[in-house]
Amino acid sequence: MKILTKNAISLSLAAMTGVFSMNSPVFAATSASTSITANIVGGSCDIAAPATVSIMDGEPISAASITPTSDISDTFDLTLSGCKGFGLTPSISIVGDANNDSGTNLFVSSSSTSKGYGILLSTTGNTNFAASTNLAATKNIAAVTKTWGNTQASTLNGTLPLKAVVSCGTCTASTLQGGILNASLTFNFVYQ
């Protein structure tokens, strides 16, 4: 019997030593702090354009005055505001019907009653967007080359000048015909 009691006491002391060594909070920290950060690229801008642009204030334009080099035009601005975010390259996509019936890509809606005429849309660009002499050809206003990965989108706030010219392209279309010329365009800010 003594042998059993001796073994039981040894086992009890060993078990208690294990409990104290595993659950001894005396040397552990009572709180811990951490700071979590994330670097997320992306953002957006509000974009605005005039609801209508009437070349020559809507006055009739003589077909004889429209040549490959004529400048019957009106200018307007796209306005970018509320731009937030960073890390991506901006561009502006243009949605609108275009054709090259006149030998040049021009914006023209199917509701137009004129034939062979269209709108030659261009931009001189600005510090953020590249110049383009014919936006109907690309349907895109591309960003200038710069380090966009570290550029805050707020630098995009401002205006971008556009010019709309009534054009007959190369003016060689055999079907040139006067009428109402319409070009409906939608400008979308893209950040990718």
Mean pLDDT: 85
Question: What coarse outline follows from CA principal-axis ratios?
Answer: elongated
* Total number of helices: 2
Task: Report on the biggest sheet.
Answer: 4 strands, antiparallel
Task: Please provide the count of β strands.
Answer: 9
* String of helices and strands: HEEEEEEHEEE
Structure characterization notes:
The protein is 13% helix and 29% strand. The chain starts with a helix and ends with a strand. A hairpin with a 6-residue loop joins strand 4 (98-99) and strand 5 (106-107). It has 192 residues and is an alpha+beta fold.
Helices and strands in order:
Elements: H1 2-22, E1 42-48, E2 73-86, E3 90-95, E4 98-99, E5 106-107, E6 118-123, H2 135-138, E7 140-142, E8 158-167, E9 186-191
Antiparallel strand pairs: 1-2, 2-8, 3-7, 3-9, 4-5, 6-8
Summary, kept brief:
The chain is α+β, with helices and mostly antiparallel strands and 192 residues long. Helices cover 13% and strands 29% of the residues. It has helices spanning 2-22, 135-138; strands at 42-48, 73-86, 90-95, 98-99, 106-107, 118-123, 140-142, 158-167, 186-191.
